[in-house]
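It is worth pausing here to work through a concrete case rather than discussing structure prediction in the abstract. The textbook approach is simple: state the sequence, then state the predicted structure, then interpret. We follow exactly that order.
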Amino acid sequence: MTLVRAADAAAIEDAAARLARGEPVVFPTETVYGIGADAANRDAVAAVYRIKQRPSGHPLIVHVLDGASAQRWAEWSRRAQRLTEAFWPGPLTLILKRAPDAPAWACGQESTIGLRAPAHPVARALLHAFARHGGAGIAAPSANRFGRISPTRAEHVVEDLGEDAPLILDGGPCEVGVESTIVDLSRGRPVLLRPGGIPVSQLAAVLGEQVLERDAHAPRVSGTLDSHYAPLTPVEMVDADEVPGRVAQLRAEGRRVALWARSVPTSIADVGFAMARDARTTAHELYDTLRRLDRSGCDRIVIERVPRTPEWRAVGDRLRRAAAAGR
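Step two, the predicted structure:
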């Protein structure tokens, strides 16, 4: 039976002890809930891959307390120092050259490693407690089946993983709601690999240089497959002026339609949810809403395309990948 515990001091200590014994646990971060294990324990990391049904070549992110503890895992740099001083703890993952003695099993055998210092108080308390047990980092992807909708509430984890879920620390809904920004610092110039909670403009301002776009030689990192974050129900992204016609067409074909829209009345569909007008609120509500749409019993999910502006980039990225699964 899945054990869900309010994330008080006793539960956090229990979770840290489990990590030290090589068991996985689920914990909240400010972005999404993660299923984590001792990053230095090969068998523990393998259990995370197995529960998540994640391909072994798809790297995890190692969660650490701060820049000092990150240097146990990676070759440090001036750029890394600047970014961690500005944005850690927070929703920023750095891709760095893996230290020679750092284990490769959490990295998909890549020569690089992803590192992040989460800001959520439960995640930080867990890292502190794990350190008292001798732990140096927690390798943790999102706590859902591979490729499916990320969890931002404890009940989402239970919904996805069922009896396979280990101990879940319930810290309430995640504040940010989309995964971390990922920046590659392993190849000389900073490169954005995944948009997230920290805009590129802020990264560039701190670094004093342009952050380049992803290229064909980028290392493999978490959450960047073309199809990802996907409901079981097929998803379509549709421009606002085309939504009414597309919904009408699908319903004329005998399909039940679930709609999530900002500027179109949702009453035109069988099931409808209104999208927030601002990107931050939409990001916070994104995965919970996708799950509600998926549970609606409809045959197709239609989502009004979000603005192509910097503040909407992370939401647009996740929706594009969610829709790719239905093509």
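Step three, interpretation. Residues 279-294 form the longest helix (16 residues). The mean pLDDT is 94.
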